[in-house]
Amino acid sequence: MTATQHMLDRCHDPTYVCSMSEPHPLRSWREAHGVTADDVAAAVGVTSTAVYAWELGERKPRVEHAAAVESYTRGAVRVADMGVELTPEIVAAVERASRAGCPFCDGSGDTEHGPCGCCR
Known about the structure:
By secondary structure, the protein is mainly α. Helices cover 48% and strands 0% of the residues. The N and C termini lie far apart (47 Å).
């Protein structure tokens, strides 16, 4: 059974409260950009089943995965949107993850390195 079929089956279960009227921010972003759960999963290092579980609210991602989602979506889906509580350590991890994907940035804080401005 695919994750999508599982999701639909659960939504038809009268004991399950399904919130199809308000999709998860990641799902909304994926649909708006034509990105599959497999694409997100490959980009952040998880399975598509994990992505579906996040979107259904069944599980919360680890900090590093939520940060990778934020980086992958270029900030459109934030760590907080993924249900991860923001602490100073998490904020620092998100900043490191976003800089890690930058071809100009070495994370040094040097603002003269290129046009991205991610260290500013």
